[in-house]
From TrEMBL:
Belongs to the phosphatase 2A regulatory subunit B56 family. GO terms for biological process: signal transduction. Residues 1-32 are annotated as: Disordered. PANTHER family: SERINE/THREONINE PROTEIN PHOSPHATASE 2A PP2A REGULATORY SUBUNIT B, SERINE_THREONINE PROTEIN PHOSPHATASE 2A 57 KDA REGULATORY SUBUNIT B' KAPPA ISOFORM. The keyword Cytoplasm applies. The lineage of its organism: Eukaryota, Viridiplantae, Streptophyta, Embryophyta, Tracheophyta. This is Serine/threonine protein phosphatase 2A regulatory subunit. GO terms for cellular component: cytoplasm; protein phosphatase type 2A complex.
Length: 499
C-alpha cells in the first residue's frame, strides 16, 4: 500500500535528467554558442535575437556538421544541414579591418552562397525550424544601428553632388539579402507559419534599415518589402501605418531620411492595387503623408516617385485632383526656383487628368499662382509656366473658363511685354496673348482697358504720395536748432496733409 501511494507522488527530477535536458539544449544551440565568441557589441545582438525568436533554433532537429557540402549528404539530411549552416552564419564579423578573421569571413561567405544556391534549386523545405533559423540568421546579420556619421547629412538624403557611402560588410550583407528575398518569395512557403517570425517587429526593423546610406542596400530592401507586402496580407495595414509614421517623422521633425524615394517606389505599386472606391484610410495617406512630402527642401531627391504616387491616386479617383492641387498651392515654394520648376511639371501632369468640375473648384487660386510664375524673373520658371498653354487638355479648360482666368493672368502677360529681360519669355508671352486674342478679342480689350484704368489709378496714388512726402520734407526743413535741443516750430496749416 505504501508503495502505491509513493508511486502516485510527483517524482523529483534527478540530476541526470537535468544534465540530459541541458545537453539537448546545448546541441540545439551549438553554433549559437560558438558565435558569442565575437566582439562585445555582438552580445547585444544575441540578446535581441533570442528575445525576438525565443527557443526557436532548430527545435527538435539534430545537428549536422555545417561545413559539409549539400552534395556530400543524403537528401534526408539536407534539411538538417540547411539549418546547421544557417546557425553557423549567425556569427557576425567586423569589416573595419579587412585583414582580420579573413579565413572565417571567407568560410561564412561560402556557407551563405551555398544556402542561396540550395534555396534557388527548389530543394529547400521550409519547416518551422528552418523558417525560424532563417529569420534569426537574417535578423542577426541585417538588423543593426547605423553610426552617427551616417545621419549627419543636413539635406536629409543623398544629393546629386554627393558620393553615396558603401557599407564595407556588403560582401556578406548582399548574400543575406538575396537569401531573405528568395525566402519570402518561395512558392511553397507556409505563410501561416512564417508570419509568426516575419512579424511586426521583424518588419519594423527592416523598415528602419531603409535609412541606410548604401543605395545597394536600399534597393534590396525595396524589393524585399514589396514581396512581404504582397505575400503577407495580414501585415499590410501595419506596413502602411509604419511607412506613414516614417514619412511624418521625416516631414515634420527631422527632414533626414535616405530611403524616402525607395519607400515611395513600393507604394507606387501598392496604390495601383487599391480597390475602388478608395478607403478613407488611403485618402488620409494622400492628404497627410504624400501631399506634405512636397514641403522638405530635399524634395528633388524623391519628387519623381512622389509624383507617380499622386498620379496613381488621381487615376483611381479623379475627384482627388482638386485636393492635390490645393496641397501644391499650400506648399508652393517662394524662394526656390528649382522646386518651383518641379511643382509646375507635376501640376501639368495633374491637370491633364482633372475634369472640368474639379478644375473650376481651384482655378482662381491656381491661376493667381500661375500669374506670378508667368512674371517670374527666373526665366526657366516663366518659360515652364507659359508651356501650360501648349497642353491641349489644359488649354481646353482655359478656353472654356476664359472669363475668369484671363483677368487673373493678363496683368502678368502685360508686364512681361513691357519689361521682361529674357527674349524667349517675351516671345512666349506674345504667343499666349495672341491665343487669347483669337479666343475672345473683346475680352482681351476689356482686360486691357481695366488694366490701363488700374495703372492710371496707381499712377495717381503714387503721385499723391510723392507730393505728400515733398510737403513733409519742406515742413521739416523749417525746424530751428538751438541750445542742443531740437524744437519743432511748424505752422499747423503748413503740415496739414492727407495721404
Amino acid at each position: 500500500m505504501i508503495k502505491q501511494i509513493l508511486s502516485k507522488l510527483p517524482r523529483k527530477s534527478s540530476k541526470s535528467d537535468t544534465l540530459a535536458s541541458a545537453g539537448s539544449d546545448s546541441n540545439n544551440n551549438t553554433n549559437l554558442g560558438s558565435s558569442i565568441q565575437c566582439s562585445n557589441g555582438l552580445n547585444v545582438v544575441r540578446r535581441m535575437s533570442s528575445a525576438v525568436f525565443p527557443s526557436m533554433v532548430a527545435a527538435g532537429v539534430e545537428a549536422v556538421e555545417p561545413h559539409l557540402s549539400f552534395k556530400d549528404v543524403p537528401n534526408t539530411e539536407k534539411q538538417k544541414l540547411f539549418v546547421s549552416k544557417l546557425n553557423l552564419c549567425c556569427v557576425v564579423y567586423h569589416f573595419n579591418d579587412p585583414d582580420k578573421d579573413q579565413a572565417e569571413k571567407d568560410s561564412k561567405r561560402q556557407a551563405l552562397i551555398e544556402l542561396v544556391d540550395f534555396v534557388a534549386s527548389g530543394s529547400a523545405k521550409f519547416s518551422e525550424a528552418a523558417i525560424a533559423a532563417t529569420c534569426k540568421m537574417c535578423a542577426i546579420n541585417l538588423f543593426r544601428d547605423f553610426p552617427p556619421k551616417y545621419r549627419s547629412n543636413s539635406t536629409g538624403g543623398e544629393t546629386e553632388d554627393e558620393e553615396p557611402m558603401f557599407d564595407p560588410a556588403w560582401s556578406h550583407l548582399q548574400i543575406v539579402y538575396d537569401l531573405l528575398l528568395r525566402f519570402v518569395s518561395y512558392s511553397s512557403l507556409d505563410v501561416k507559419v512564417a508570419k509568426k517570425y516575419v512579424d511586426h517587429s521583424f518588419i519594423l526593423r527592416l523598415l528602419e534599415l531603409s535609412d541606410s546610406e548604401d543605395p545597394r542596400e536600399r534597393d534590396c530592401l525595396k524589393t524585399i518589402l514589396h514581396r512581404i507586402y504582397g505575400k503577407f496580407m495580414v501585415h499590410r495595414p501595419f506596413i502602411r501605418k509604419a511607412v506613414s509614421n516614417i514619412i511624418y517623422r521625416f516631414v515634420f521633425e527631422t527632414e533626414r531620411h535616405n530611403g524616402i524615394a525607395e519607400l515611395l517606389e513600393i507604394f507606387g505599386s501598392v496604390i495601383s492595387g487599391f480597390a475602388l472606391p478608395l478607403k478613407e484610410e488611403h485618402k488620409m495617406f494622400l492628404s497627410r503623408a504624400l501631399i506634405p512630402l512636397h514641403k522638405p527642401k530635399s524634395v528633388g531627391i524623391y519628387h519623381q516617385q512622389l509624383t507617380y504616387c499622386v498620379v496613381q491616386f488621381i487615376e483611381k479617383e479623379p475627384k482627388l485632383a482638386s485636393v492635390v492641387i490645393k496641397g501644391l498651392l499650400k506648399y508652393w515654394p517662394v524662394t526656390n526656383s528649382q522646386k518651383e520648376l518641379m511643382f509646375l511639371s507635376e501640376l501639368e501632369e495633374i491637370l491633364e487628368m482633372t475634369g472640368m468640375v474639379e478644375f473650376q473648384k481651384i482655378m482662381v487660386p491656381l491661376f493667381r499662382r500661375i500669374g506670378y510664375c508667368l512674371n517670374s524673373s527666373h526665366f526657366q520658371v516663366a518659360e515652364r509656366a507659359h508651356f501650360l498653354w501648349n497642353n491641349e487638355h489644359v488649354l481646353n479648360h482655359i478656353t472654356q473658363n476664359r472669363q475668369v482666368i484671363l483677368p487673373l493672368v493678363f496683368p502678368a502677360l502685360e508686364r512681361n511685354t513691357r519689361n521682361h529681360w529674357n527674349q524667349a519669355v517675351l516671345n512666349l508671352t506674345l504667343n499666349v496673348r495672341k491665343m487669347f486674342c483669337e479666343m475672345d478679342e473683346e475680352l482681351v480689350l476689356a482686360c486691357q482697358g481695366k488694366l490701363e484704368e488700374e495703372d492710371s489709378k496707381s499712377s495717381m496714388a503714387a503721385e499723391k504720395r510723392r507730393l505728400t512726402w515733398e510737403r513733409l520734407e519742406t515742413a521739416a526743413s523749417f525746424q530751428p536748432v538751438g541750445g542742443g535741443n531740437i524744437s519743432f516750430l511748424v505752422n499747423p496749416a503748413t503740415c496739414s496733409v492727407t495721404c
